């Protein structure tokens, strides 16, 4: 029996996916949650074989949750199901150890197939998303510039971002300024939005 945790902040979608997977032989949904931080907590407690995560969730994004679970619960295989198949999201998911990545427009039965594949050690990447990722531009920002933008995305002041990242305020300003310049936007908020839209955050 493949034990699955499902996380999606849209209750209607989550309930439909739970119902879909529950009708499949050999698959048991052991938990379903609507927040990324809840997904991590429940997965660490229940130790499912597979976690199916949406990207955009409150509390913690599906990508952040995937990175945390890959580190803290490596036995759990990870699948991302998203309406936002941005190439940057796919790259980040792959770097986090995600084994399955498919769009929400995929046929319902495909999710069960992907769960079985990744539980068995295989990988599934939506072919169109993979093609888009290969054709997409590389992120021009450094890891530290991305860290600063990620911390700035919620509108925090530079002083708080500096404390969060363990950096000086001047260094944070430099990272944010470099990101704004590289992305050709007017301010750090626009830079964070651009990076998010391209799937880099």
TrEMBL record:
Residues that bear 4-aspartylphosphate: 54
Response regulatory domain segment(s): 3-119
Signal peptide (residue range): none
Keywords: DNA-binding, Phosphoprotein
Superkingdom: Bacteria
Transmembrane stretches, start-end: none
Domain HTH luxR-type intervals: 134-199
Gene3D superfamilies: 3.40.50.2300
PANTHER family xref list: TRANSCRIPTIONAL REGULATORY PROTEIN DESR, TWO-COMPONENT RESPONSE REGULATOR
Protein name: Response regulator
């Amino acid at each position: 029996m493949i034990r699955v945790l499902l996380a999606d902040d849209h209750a209607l979608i989550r309930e439909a996916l739970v119902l879909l997977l529950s009708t499949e032989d050999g698959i048991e949904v052991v938990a379903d949650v609507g927040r990324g931080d809840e997904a991590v907590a429940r997965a660490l407690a229940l130790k499912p074989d597979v976690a199916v995560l949406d990207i955009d969730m409150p509390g913690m994004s599906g990508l952040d949750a995937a990175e945390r679970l890959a580190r803290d619960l490596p036995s759990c295989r990870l699948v991302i199901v998203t309406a936002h198949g941005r190439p940057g999201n796919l790259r980040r998911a792959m770097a986090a150890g995600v084994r399955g990545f498919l769009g929400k427009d995929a046929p319902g039965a495909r999710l069960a197939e992907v769960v079985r594949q990744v539980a068995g050690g295989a990988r599934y990447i939506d072919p169109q998303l993979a093609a888009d990722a290969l054709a997409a531009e590389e992120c021009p920002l450094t890891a530290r510039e991305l860290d600063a933008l990620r911390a700035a995305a919620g509108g925090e002041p530079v002083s708080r971002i500096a404390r969060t990242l363990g950096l000086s305020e001047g260094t944070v300003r430099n990272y944010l300024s470099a990101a704004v310049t590289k992305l050709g936007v007017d301010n750090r908020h626009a830079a964070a939005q651009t990076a998010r839209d391209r799937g880099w955050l």
